Amino acid sequence: MARLGSWIKAEPEGIYVEPADAWIDPSQPKARAWVTHGHSDHARGGHGAVLATPETLAIMETRYGPQSGQPISYDETIRVGEVDVRFVPAGHVLGSAQIVMEHRGERIVVSGDYKRRPDPTCACFVPVPCDVFITEATFGLPVFHHPDTGSEMDRLLHRLHSDPSRCVLVGAYALGKAQRIITELRARGHHDPIYFHGAIERLNQLYESFGVELGELRHTATATKQEMAGHIVIAPPGALNDRWSRRLPDPVTAMASGWMRIRQRARQRNVELPLIISDHADWDELTTTIRELAPTEVWITHGREEALKHWCMTHQIKACELNLVGYEDEDD
Ligand SMILES: [Zn+2]
Ligand SMILES: [Zn+2]
Q1: What 3-state DSSP class applies to 89?
Q2: What are phi and psi of 122, to 5 degrees?
């Protein structure tokens, strides 16, 4: 009998689905690409035909210009070559999907990046039992436990209200994290204007065009220091320590990332208020998901593969690591 999943090849530049002649999240331009979500390490420009959710295609067009894209909505099944393919929610960012493939009676699920906790800006992860689960492992170590999102948001608001002469500058990945922070703040009753760095403007607009309500937002370029005092300002992580932040009123520097669990990372970026908010599964979410899907095999991509591989083996699940290159979730 053929090895399980022998029709899928893990190449350095991505996952190749042979009977469909398609690549998943390839790091190099390919004739046919299936893209799990819009983050730039997964969705690159220059492909021939792109199969992705309408939201992901819109994100790619915002970044790279017109795509020869074929939109596929959640739970629609299409046949490509000899493979039935379906995109189901991954709970990571707007439009993010797991790719479910069936070929010759085998079902393989590629998780893409995912998380299990609720996120008001995107559809919740849908578990699909399968023979082979190809999972990410960005936070694949038991030390990674993301606290409750609500308690992190309360810390942010508490800090904001403790000194109305300052602003709190939150570093957040421009796609997904920034909009999630804004909607979480709104859900906690914070309806003051939120200021944003110009680099996240187009993505804010894109989220709103898909029905995610962000409330009153203002561009920092049109505001005075005085106006921004006592307010939250959202910027991409790269802007936290650059000249741009001098226009802000004595900012308390915060950053929202799963990496904030590691003190040294917070110190490197001069972060005063680390907020542990991630769009990736933590250790418990990874292992709970594998238990729930009960796959025969787990293949592990970008992250700390060793610990998760070991966990699978001790739970009688065959596991291996795939050495794909070019996936970086540094700020996530
Ligand atoms: Zn991602
Ligand atoms: Zn990733």
Answers
A1: strand
A2: -155, 165
Distance 160 CA to ligand 2 centre (A): 31
Of the listed ligands, the closest to the CA of 95 is: 1
Distance 112 CA to ligand 2 centre (A): 7
Token code pair at residue 312: 């699978």
Q: List b or e across 105-139, with b for residues whose CB sees 16 or more CB atoms inside 10 angstroms.
A: ebbbbbbbbbbbbebebbbebeeeebbbbbbbbbb
Give the integer Cα–Cα distance in Å for 37 and 92.
8
Distance 224 CA to ligand 1 centre (A): 34
Cα dist from 8 to 58, 131, 138, 139, 291, whole Å: 28, 13, 22, 25, 23
Q: Which pTM does this prediction carry?
A: 0.96
pLDDT in tens, 53-84: 999 999 999 999 999 999 999 989 999 999 99
DSSP label of 2: P
> From ligand 1's centre to the CA of 93, what distance in Å?
7
| String of DSSP letters for 176-196 | THHHHHHHHHHHTT--S-EEE
